[in-house]
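Minutes, methods subgroup
Present: GH (chair), OT, SY

1. OT presented the first of two proteins processed in the latest run. Sequence and structure tokens recorded below as shown on screen.
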Amino acid sequence: LPAMQACREKGVENIFLTMWGDNGGECSYWSLLPSLYAVRRFYDGVTDMEQIKREFAELTGESFDDMMLLDLPIDMGKIQFNSGAPHKTMLYNDAFLGVYDQALIPGVKEQYADMAERLAPLAERNSPFAYLYRQMTDLCRLLSVKYDLGLRTREAYQAGDKDALRALVPVYAEALELAESFVESFRAAWYKENKPHGFDVQEQRLGGLLLRLRSQSQRLMDYALGKVDSIPELEEEIRHDTAMKIKEIEQQLKDEADEKAREIISIARGFAEMGIDCAKGTTMICSNLVLSII
């Protein structure tokens, strides 16, 4: 809102809104519609969110608030070392290696379950965006099971509780089934919006997840039945400082990028203060007004 007000005050009429597709481009650009519309209306001087929501529904036939629910899984479970995408971190967190297990927050898996219940009815509606609600429903259902699966496994193993480990085998099977459902809905969403190119990356990543869950289930059963003497990965101590170092490097890179963005914005403000008209065909540098909403 302040950025749009500043643009309006300075007469900036051309603004770039960037929607990044880094690292696989998993997120749908259509999920940005509410934010894009709100930003446009902020620039027009309209700040009444209820009015914006009514207009959005009239224009698209879709509820503004319903579409904003697609963002909630991204915000849940902000892990202790400040991950920008905790849902993705915990999706790929290996249940035996457990690099991020010490960053789990109690109650988050229940939040994912609740979110799945909120999204599921939207996936059944006659909506052009039902496929997005289905994808996020499937992701939340998977995370409601997988989120702390590694932690539960390690605790049972280190306690020497083979009965508890045996009881976890069907949980791994459930996680595997839910992961397969997520892959299917993700694939459907991707093919609806994109060329097939690029989904090979997702299938390679998620295929690894599926294979790991399958093999881990079998290894747990083999150990519980005495077919093997140990599971070496679960013997290892989880070192939280390793995960912290990874996030420290990621944060350093982000800070450097933010500093560069601030420099560009400062240059843009200088042009505006000199009275350079960016709206009459002049090349406009003042757009790194970047709204990254995914």
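2. SY then presented the second protein from the same run.
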Amino acid sequence: IQQRSDILEYLSPFGSPNEYVQNLSNQKVINSEGSLTTCGSLYNKAYSIQRCIDSVLNQSYINFQIVVVNDGSIDNSVQILKSTYKEQIESKKILLIEQKNQGVSVARNVGVSNSKSNYICFLDADDEWKRDFLFKISRLISDFPEASMYCLAHEVSKNNSIPTKKKQAFEENFRGYVEDFFLSSSISDLANSSKVCVKKEALLETGGFPIGITTGEDLYIWILIALKNRVAYEVSYEVIVHQQTDNSRISRRNSVPYPFIYFSQNKNIELTKSLKKYLFLIFYKHFLSSLLKFK
């Protein structure tokens, strides 16, 4: 089964690098433990895994651990990890878990089950974080504790081009709770699997990532969390999403996005007007993308 790979970041709800301490003297602390656990899934990303891991190790927020779940890679992704980060693996700064290929949802769920933190962030192995991603997420968690999902803005690089900023649903200085997650997500991508941080409790309440699903399994989780919980967002471009042609998405071309299937089968769930619009856009974008790829 071909799939894209992911690096999941498990975050504590507070903390800051020394260079920011004086400026954050009034910052609220909502968890005195303050540790970070980083966990993730990897499948055939030899060309990008080092860039991804380096972007995590270079964070200004330094109190974290990386856990990589290798989901049966058949390229040299794991060899790159073991040779490049031998010291970090030996010191347990990076925990490497290896399993047979079972799909991205199983790998993510394994990562979640191995996390010890109260908050979980995700980063695809194709993508990278800028230096202050974890720091700004930790500030969002501290400043907006009623939320269960936190997101930052992102840029897109197509085939290694210069990254460009994505369209926003908010003004450039927006930072706070999102009034209508689905309406805003219909304008721009508020949450994706490289820039979202979720409360572990809220994630577990969804039942975890749906096993065997190849399209929209992550969108399904963000939707379920947003249906029952508040979301906080900051227009701060701390993520670079790399769109590069490889074979990891072949299995997704002919499949219907899972959120569309789930809500079609569970008609007892009341859908708001904005959620209906968002679901339609998910299906439409995927359908259009599939047509273009077959040309």
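Chair's summary of item 2: The first strand starts at residue 6 and ends at 11.
Next meeting: continue with the remaining queue.
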